[in-house]
């Protein structure tokens, strides 16, 4: 039987004992190792399979961790994790209490920079390279960035700066011509021309003062190693362009790169996806958005849809197929997406700008300066709001209620279920006087028959879901389901009322006056941070009108919640049904004894 190299490798020092001739065999073993684990544990597959050779070559040639390696996004860093001390715990990847799916400084000295959001690697590595210069250290600094991520404004800002320094920085462009969905834009066309040899004008990266080399085959280990060794001797900013195949080594992943970006469970031997069958289930919120915008766009020719690089994740792909001229994938460019939407709105269009809650953080100034200050009625649809699960701390959409609530002019709404999402989309496209942010969670809702006739929602109006007399529980968004279940499970269920406040801004003040005048105690529940969110808004109201009802705020505590299933993370945040039962019953007890 052939000797398995991977069994003897725990850290890059072990790897450096192998000969270059041994490395292709190691690449094969690494692919098998990753496929076997991700097939059952799930995670980002295609990107890591595509950089097996690159990762081996980097740790082989450079003296990591003294030489500094920064991964962009970090979803492609599984090989890096396995070769840097985490092989034996790799099966805990993205699981509760296990290692993170992204590089994380607290996890390993080889993880030089925490990532998850894209396009940060060049700036971070440049900062490290300049720091090394200032400290008189002789190190190499390498940023590995994908073709979709390098098209983002932030990456260009880093290149623009690096090009006027003599920092010892190597930027490696891992060009597989795809992000999660196919890459877009003029830069993509430029890179294609470079690869075909039809690019006649100056090389962009050389024009920015980088010493450019490539494009070379990123799966050719001896070539990669000799090129990296050569680049080690070149001073100043350098740029290596490599061509790889996303999903390399698993036929299905190479053929369907979108699906196998993060395929869920699959058969490790055949590569076939394991599709859950069984009774019909509620739709994903993203599909309610994607199918509803198509429905609305059929009758309203003014409607435009925008996504920054997430056509599949947001389901805007349906509109892109049906109305290609009115639906835009602008690439990983959240800032541009927001201001592009604002521009379209100034010209009378009705624009749905769909951005994952966590990624909108990057475009905060555009929301305030370009949209809200001018009161332009952009319709923001913020997908993946609340806890997202296994992607963890970098991806939870738990800050949006707090960071949006303080912006003047903005309406902030969270649908309780699919029907409410549909109805608020319908209401918003009829024409609002203000911009609106509609935030909804990852995954499925709670209503199977969601395609009900459209209804107009009244802006700023909450509703009562259940009668009661002592305690009022006020929820916002889809977390209402946990509240509903908790109330059903409480000992004195009849004494507990439940309200869906729907709007965090404007707050339904008349309903709140009624609640604070009627109930002895109030509990607010949100799947967002307790600092400055919905509960804070209710506390501000209570303080302003000097109400005395005992009030408790339930939500995400003031800390970064890590990775795990949503159920596990809700427990951590005391938002699961059992914890809610306890909170409600404790409060009932305290008011009955006071
Ligand atoms: C700011 C931001 N927007 C969107 C995403 C979602 N996202 C994660 S990976 C990815 C595609 C990255 O493509 P590329 O850089 O080409 O790397 P590849 O997956 O091809 O290795 C996107 C859009 C993100 N992580 N960060
Ligand atoms: C790495 C990254 O940012 C994306 O791949 C993200 O994990 C997508 O999340 P969804 O699976 O919720 O679309
Ligand atoms: Mg790519």
From TrEMBL:
Residues that coordinate or bind thiamine diphosphate: 75, 116-118, 148-149, 176, 334
Keywords attached to this entry: Isoprene biosynthesis, Magnesium, Metal-binding, Thiamine biosynthesis, Thiamine pyrophosphate, Transferase
Record: residues binding Mg(2+): 147, 176
Cofactor note: Binds 1 thiamine pyrophosphate per subunit. Binds 1 Mg(2+) ion per subunit.
EC number(s) given by UniProt: 2.2.1.7
Pathway: Metabolic intermediate biosynthesis; 1-deoxy-D-xylulose 5-phosphate biosynthesis; 1-deoxy-D-xylulose 5-phosphate from D-glyceraldehyde 3-phosphate and pyruvate: step 1/1
PROSITE patterns membership: TRANSKETOLASE_2
Family indicated by similarity: Belongs to the transketolase family. DXPS subfamily.
HAMAP family: DXP_synth
Role: Catalyzes the acyloin condensation reaction between C atoms 2 and 3 of pyruvate and glyceraldehyde 3-phosphate to yield 1-deoxy-D-xylulose-5-phosphate (DXP).
Protein name: 1-deoxy-D-xylulose-5-phosphate synthase
Taxonomic lineage: Bacteria, Pseudomonadati, Bacteroidota, Flavobacteriia, Flavobacteriales
Gene name of this polypeptide: dxs
């Amino acid at each position: 039987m052939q000797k398995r190299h991977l069994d003897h490798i725990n850290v890059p020092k072990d790897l450096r004992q192998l000969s270059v001739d041994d490395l292709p065999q190691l690449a094969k073993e690494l692919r098998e190792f990753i496929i076997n684990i991700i097939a059952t544990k799930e995670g980002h597959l295609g990107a890591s399979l595509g950089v097996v050779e690159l990762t081996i070559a980097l740790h082989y040639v450079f003296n990591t961790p003294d030489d500094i390696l920064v991964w962009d996004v970090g979803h492609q860093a599984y090989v890096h994790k396995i070769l840097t001390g985490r092989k034996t715990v790799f099966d805990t990847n993205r699981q509760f209490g296990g290692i993170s799916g992204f590089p994380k400084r607290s996890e390993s000295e080889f993880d030089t920079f925490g990532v998850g959001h894209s396009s940060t690697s060049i700036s971070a590595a440049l900062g490290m390279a300049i720091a090394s210069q200032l400290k008189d250290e002789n190190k190499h600094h390498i940023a590995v960035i994908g073709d979709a991520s390098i098209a983002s404004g932030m990456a260009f800002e880093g290149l623009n700066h690096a090009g006027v320094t003599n920092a010892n920085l190597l930027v490696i462009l891992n060009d597989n011509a795809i992000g999660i969905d196919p890459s877009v834009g003029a830069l993509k066309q430029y890179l294609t021309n470079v690869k075909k040899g039809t690019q006649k004008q100056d090389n962009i990266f050389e024009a920015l003062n980088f010493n450019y080399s490539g494009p070379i085959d990123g799966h050719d280990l001896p070539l990669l190693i000799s090129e990296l060794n050569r680049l080690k001797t070149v001073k100043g900013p350098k740029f290596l362009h490599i061509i790889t195949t996303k999903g390399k080594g698993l036929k299905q992943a190479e053929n369907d790169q979108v699906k196998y970006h993060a395929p869920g469970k699959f058969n490790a031997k055949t590569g076939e996806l394991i599709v859950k069958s069984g009774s019909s289930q509620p739709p994903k919120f993203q599909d309610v958005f994607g199918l509803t915008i198509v429905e609305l766009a059929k009758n309203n020719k003014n409607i435009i849809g925008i996504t920054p690089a997430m056509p599949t994740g947001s389901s805007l792909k349906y509109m892109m197929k049906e109305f290609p001229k009115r639906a835009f994938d602008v690439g990983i460019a959240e800032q541009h997406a927001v201001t592009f939407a604002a521009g379209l709105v100034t010209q009378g269009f009705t624009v749905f700008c769909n951005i994952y809650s966590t990624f909108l953080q990057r475009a905060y100034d555009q929301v305030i300066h370009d949209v809200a200050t001018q009161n332009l009625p952009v319709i923001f649809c913020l997908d993946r709001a609340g806890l997202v699960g296994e992607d963890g701390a970098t991806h939870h959409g738990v800050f949006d209620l707090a960071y949006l609530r303080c912006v003047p002019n903005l309406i902030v709404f969270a649908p309780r279920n699919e029907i409410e999402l549909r109805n608020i989309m319908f209401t918003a496209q009829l024409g609002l006087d203000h911009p609106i942010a509609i935030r909804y969670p990852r995954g499925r809702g709670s209503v199977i028959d969601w395609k009900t006739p459209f209804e107009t929602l009244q802006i700023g109006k909450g509703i009562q879901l259940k009668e009661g007399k002592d305690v009022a529980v006020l929820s916002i968004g889809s977390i209402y389901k946990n509240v509903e279940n908790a109330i059903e499970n409480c000992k004195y269920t009849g004494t507990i009322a439940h309200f869906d406040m729907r709007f965090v801004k404007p707050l339904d003040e008349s309903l709140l006056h009624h609640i604070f005048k009627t109930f002895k105690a109030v509990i607010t529940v949100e799947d967002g941070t307790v600092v400055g969110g919905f509960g804070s808004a209710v506390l501000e109201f209570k303080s302003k009108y000097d109400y005395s009802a005992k009030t408790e705020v339930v939500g995400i505590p003031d800390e970064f919640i890590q990775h795990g299933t949503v159920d596990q993370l809700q427990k951590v945040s005391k938002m699961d049904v059992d914890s809610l039962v306890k909170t409600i019953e404790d409060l009932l007890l305290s008011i009955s004894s006071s």
